[in-house]
Every structure is written in structure tokens, then in C-alpha cells.
Design a protein that fits this description.
Length: 651
């Protein structure tokens, strides 16, 4: 999801409860892709945090409902885009985990009026308070129960979710659209607003004045027209989370593009656009066709292939990946590609907590650039890297999900998440990286469901047979990035000796263990080497067959780093070997290091970052680990001028 502020639109309601990014007015010309890259990856003007901060109190008060399994919704909505109002009824079926359930709740804003609740064909009492609609039920385990809720009202002006524009298109027609991520679904319809129970199936009926069209998710089964009104029936038969349910009503015109699959099947791309934008839209939306094919080949076949993909034009800046029907304000390539990528990352597999929003946005941001040519691909990586390292702090993982602005922090959740994936691709190589992604997507327990970061880590580790806990602890849960200082010397045999020193921008990380890409250049020659840097002050030796005149760290922007310093020295280095032995070991480990290094402290950490041994003697150069459980540990050696962390195995 990428949402921006459209300066030409005047909100009748408040702006929606989402992240919004302004587009700067430029006095000079950019190509459409370059314009998009500047806005997407640099994101120089974020000005809605104060607005969002005023709403955070509402997010803290959302009650999580988890005492039943929601199966199905049949929804009837009456919408007139000339009036900010919604009237609806929602029929729901559910199952209960036990006979002990005596009442259930739906999330629904107090700003809406519940007319009645029909349970077993009888009107029953209910309580609608603190944005919860609660009522009594008779629970029978594994039997399907049902309820129907009748409601209406003016959706809250404070929190968005249901946006109303009057006379905003060039043809001065009104528009109503919805936007529910992360906490806005309850603002306009009663639902189970969670990230652990998807709606299995849904039918949506939208009644509007006959001159308008209503767009939504799934397949358009019918449009029934009477003298004054029109009812659109949309049917969706894939699991869906409430924030991805949406509607849009305006004087749209429609047309379709098609993707042809290798087996001859086709996928409709259904487009709802403003009449005045039709000629522009029909030229741009077909650009999504080769990208769908690319994603099919790279990941898996489009997850909703039995229905459709589509676009709906709206007045909010940016876009939103409503399931099978993206809402967007323009047909810029980067915007279309980003929202399309969410079909796999965010819709098919949804983050199981807003703490892990990077599983949606980091993935979509990274794979957005796969549709670009080589020049814009490299430009995008460079811009993302610069944007992320403009600030020395901040984790990809969201520790406070009541802070909506933090959930959708463009630098961290989007760009840093994307660059971490790019770094992981470099760490593992293309074959293991993409095999791990396919393994993640093919997991039957995650398919059409939810995932947390640990689920992704499991698939990467299981596929690659590489322990990645330290990688993810540093790059997802930790903050900051490394800066490198490299000194090199070439002897008469053309051997290059170089020492790599690392500092960290944030104290949460002791050391970033990484494979470093270092490129050596000489007249008419170059050579890229890959070395594993496990401690600061580490020395490497490379045999070359040419005289070098320059050295560059990470020329292709694989890793997050900034302000590196590279210098040539005229003298060979004194080798500084720091080792632990035996490894693996059962009881004792011994430390060896040059006498000129002054050891100041020794401590031992488990793989989850917890300190398990400290205040160890620095005089004997031994560490007793016999009381530790079997497993992998990290020994941190602090010297007066550097720090080294070494991995050991206790058996």
C-alpha cells in the first residue's frame, strides 16, 4: 500500500487512517518512472504524522475478538456517492471452539447506529459500546451458527476508512471509496478485525443510484438495474482479511485487459476509471501484463487466478492493494507493480501482526523494481540505500503497533525491509534466495492465511541449511547499519592484503556479520571478491594478476552501509589472528590473540541475543561453558581498540 495526499482533492471527511506521502511539485521534467522512483524511494515530504498521532488513542482501544471462527459474510450496502452515509446489513456464519462460548462480539465504530441484530430469526438484545457490538449466542461445537446485523449511519469524521469526495473529478462527479488498513474496517462495517482469522468466503451487494457503478473484490456476478437504482453483486471465494474488503462508487467506465497463461488460460484485469481518464488509462494498464507473468514465474501462479485482478481509480494519493482489486490514483508503473506484488505478499499470505508489516510492504517494495529495466533497477537500489541510511536508528520490526505512523514508516517498513531482502539475496545467492521464497509461498499452513517473521526465517533456514538467526536479529529486530574502514596493501607478487574495520550506527548491534563485496580495479582489469567479515580488524588476502589502482566496497549496492573509508597503505600489516579453540567443545574454550591486543572483557550470548555469561576472567584466556545447554553461542571479546564476536558450538 502506498498512499499520498492529492493536493487537488478537498476532503469532506477527515483523511483516512493510513500513511500519506506528498508529491513535491517539480519545476523540471522527469520521466514517469523516474518521477515515481524519486517519490517512492526518497519520500522527502511526510507531513501527516501529527494528524495520525491524534488518532492513536483510538487504536489502543481496539478489542481483539477471538472466540469464534468466522466463515462467511453476505453483505448488502446502500451507497449514494452524493451523500456521506452508509446503510447495510451483514449476514455472518461462524463456528465456536467450545460449548463454553456464551457471547460473541464484532468490531464496529460507535459512530454507526445498530438498528437490530437477528439471531435464529429473532431480534435479540445487544450491547454496542467502546466500538464493540456484543450479543449472546448458543454455542454448539463445530456446528455452523449465523447472525445478521442491520446498521446505518455517517462513518466517523475522525478516523477515515470511508472517504467521500464531492465534485472532485474533471467531470465533477462524486466518489465514495473505502480504505481500511490498518484499523479502519470497523469504521464502516461490522467485522472481526483481526490478523489471525480470515473470512473464508464473501458475497457483496452494493445498491447505488443507477447512473453510478460500484466496484469491489472478487467477480462481478451481476448488475441488476431498476428505474432508479442499480445493484452490483460481487462474489469472492478466497480467504480474505477485513482490511482488504473494499468498495468504490462513482461514474466509472470499465474495460478489461487480459493475461494469457502458458496453458492457454486467461486472467482478466478489470479496470474502473474516470471517463475523462479513459484514454490515458487504456495506454498504461497493459504494462502490468508482463509483470504478472514475471511474478508467476518467479513466485507461483497468481493466487486468485480463478477470479480476476483489477484497478479502481480513486482520489487518495497512491494506492491500496484491496484483494483482487487495487485502488490507485494514477497508473504510474511503480505504483501498479507495487500493489500487484501484494497479491502474493500481503493478500495471499498476510502479516500475522502489524509488528511484521515488512512481510507485506518490504516484499512489495523490493519486487516492485523487478519490473524495471537495469538502469532504473540500479537507481532504485541506490535511492533506497541512501534513504534508509539517512537516519542511524530504527528497526524493521514494529515494536509499538498503536503508532500507525510507525507501522507505515516508509524508510523502515518499506525501504529498509526491501534492502534487507536484497542483502539476504546477496548473503545466500539467487538460487537459495528464490527457492526459499517459493518454499514460503508453498507452505500449506501459511497459504491464504497469516505469517510472522519467524515463519519466513524457518523457510529460509530450512531451504538454505544456513543459520540466519543472527542475520535477522541484526537486520530486522536491531537498528542501524555498519560503516566500514578498509586499508589495503599490494605486494610485489600482486597479493592484496586488506584489513576491514567496522563501526555500528546504533548501540543495539555489536557487529554486523556479512559477506562483503569488494571490487579491485586496475588498468584494463577489475575483480570482485566476496569475503565473510566476522569481526572488526579482520585481515584478508587476495591473489590478483594485475596491479590495482583503486578499491570499491559494494559497487552494486547489495548491503546497507554508509560513509565507508578506503585507503591504501605503503606497508604490510602485522597479522592479528584472534581464535577460539576447541570448537565445537563440551566444557572449556581457550582464547588466542596477539600480545599487543589488550583484552578488556569477555561475555557469552545465546542465539536470541541474551547474555548468558559475563564478568569472566580476562587473565587466564579461558572460558568455562560446561553449565550451558547444548547449542550455538557467541563469544564477545572486547579489546581496547576493537571488538570481535566468534561463534562456538557446545555439544
Amino acid at each position: 500500500m502506498i498512499v499520498g495526499d492529492n493536493k487537488n482533492a478537498k476532503f469532506v471527511c477527515s483523511q483516512p487512517l493510513v500513511r500519506i506521502y506528498k508529491k513535491n511539485v517539480m519545476d523540471f521534467f522527469f520521466s514517469s518512472i523516474l518521477w515515481a522512483l524519486v517519490n517512492l524511494f526518497l519520500n522527502t515530504d511526510v507531513d501527516v504524522k501529527s494528524m495520525q498521532n491524534s488518532q492513536h488513542k483510538n487504536q489502543k482501544n481496539i478489542t481483539i475478538v477471538n472466540d469464534y471462527d468466522l466463515l462467511y459474510h453476505r453483505i448488502y450496502w446502500e451507497i449514494d456517492p452524493n451523500v456521506r452515509y452508509i446503510k447495510g446489513r451483514v449476514f455472518s456464519t461462524m463456528k465456536y471452539p467450545s460449548n463454553d462460548v456464551s457471547s460473541i462480539s464484532f468490531n464496529l465504530s460507535d459512530s454507526l447506529v445498530v438498528d437490530s441484530v437477528l439471531y435464529h430469526n429473532e431480534n435479540i438484545d445487544f450491547i454496542h459500546f467502546a466500538n464493540l457490538l456484543s450479543f449472546s449466542v448458543t454455542a454448539n461445537v463445530d456446528e455452523i451458527d449465523s447472525v445478521e446485523i442491520f446498521y446505518q449511519g455517517i462513518p466517523s469524521n475522525e478516523d477515515g476508512g470511508f472517504t467521500f469526495f464531492q465534485g472532485q473529478t474533471d467531470s465533477f462527479n462524486p466518489i465514495i471509496t473505502t480504505l481500511s488498513e490498518p484499523y479502519g474496517a470497523m469504521l464502516w462495517w461490522p467485522n472481526k478485525q483481526t490478523l489471525f482469522d480470515k473470512i473464508d468466503s464473501i458475497d457483496i451487494f452494493i445498491n447505488t443510484p443507477s447512473e453510478y457503478k460500484a466496484a469491489s473484490i472478487g467477480i462481478l456476478k451481476s448488475e441488476t438495474i431498476s428505474a432508479l437504482t442499480k445493484t452490483a453483486h460481487w462474489q469472492h471465494r478466497y480467504p480474505i482479511t477485513p482490511y482488504l474488503v473494499a468498495l468504490a462508487v462513482s461514474n466509472y467506465v470499465t474495460y478489461s485487459d487480459y493475461v494469457i497463461f502458458p496453458n492457454g488460460d486467461s486472467l482478466e484485469i478489470l479496470n474502473y476509471v474516470y471517463p475523462e481518464n479513459y484514454n490515458n488509462a487504456v495506454q498504461k494498464t497493459p504494462k502490468i501484463i508482463p509483470v504478472i507473468s514475471l511474478f508467476n514465474d518467479t513466485f507461483m501462479t497468481y493466487p486468485f487466478k480463478n477470479e480476476k485482478y483489477g484497478h479502481v481509480q480513486w482520489e487518495l494519493g497512491g494506492g491500496m492493494e484491496h484483494q483482487t482489486m487495487t485502488f490507485l490514483n494514477s497508473f504510474d508503473e511503480q505504483l501498479m507493480f507495487h500493489e500487484l506484488a501484494h497479491s502474493w505478499f500481503g493478500n495471499y499470505i498476510t502479516c500475522g501482526s502489524w509488528q511484521d508489516i515488512w512481510l507485506n510492504e518490504g516484499f512489495a517494495t523490493y519486487f516492485t523494481i523487478f519490473g524495471f529495466n537495469e538502469y532504473y533497477y540500479k537507481l532504485a537500489l541506490s535511492n533506497m540505500k541512501s534513504h534508509v541510511t539517512n537516519d542511524s536508528s530504527g528497526s524493521v520490526y514494529v515494536y509499538d503497533t498503536t503508532d500507525v505512523a510507525r507501522i507505515f514508516d516508509h524508510r523502515l517498513s518499506y525501504n529498509k525491509g526491501a534492502m534487507v531482502l536484497h542483502g539476504l539475496r546477496w548473503y545466500l545467492g539467487d538460487s537459495l534466495f528464490f527457492a526459499s521464497i517459493k518454499s514460503y509461498l508453498s507452505d500449506e499452513y501459511l497459504a491464504y492465511g497469516f505469517a510472522r517473521s519467524n515463519d519466513l526465517i524457518h523457510h529460509f533456514e530450512n531451504t538454505s541449511n544456513v543459520d540466519l538467526h543472527e542475520f535477522f536479529n541484526d537486520w530486522i529486530y536491531g537498528e542501524g547499519y555498519p560503516t566500514y574502514d578498509i586499508e589495503y596493501f599490494q605486494n610485489n607478487s600482486n597479493q592484496v592484503h586488506f584489513i576491514v574495520k567496522q563501526s555500528q550506527s546504533h548501540s543495539s548491534i555489536d557487529f554486523f556479520e556479512m559477506y562483503l563485496p569488494i571490487k579491485f580495479y586496475g588498468e584494463g582489469h577489475d575483480s570482485l571478491v566476496r569475503v565473510y567479515n566476522s569481526f572488526s580488524g579482520q585481515e584478508f588476502v587476495v591473489d590478483l594478476d594485475f596491479i590495482i589502482d583503486s578499491v570499491k566496497l559494494d559497487p552494486d549496492n547489495w548491503i546497507l552501509t554508509r560513509n565507508e573509508h578506503i585507503a591504501q597503505t605503503l606497508f604490510e600489516f602485522e597479522t592479528q589472528v584472534i581464535e577460539i579453540y576447541p570448537n565445537p567443545t563440551r566444557e572449556m574454550i581457550y582464547l588466542t590473540f596477539p600480545e599487543k591486543l589488550k583484552l578488556t572483557s569477555v561475555s557469552v550470548y545465546s542465539t536470541d541475543g541474551k547474555k548468558v555469561l559475563e564478568n569472566l576472567s580476562i587473565n587466564t584466556k579461558t572460558v568455562d561453558i560446561k553449565n550451558l545447554n547444548r547449542g550455538i553461542y557467541f563469544v564477545k571479546l572486547n579489546f581496547s581498540n576493537q571488538t570481535q564476536t566468534l561463534k562456538i558450538l557446545k555439544y
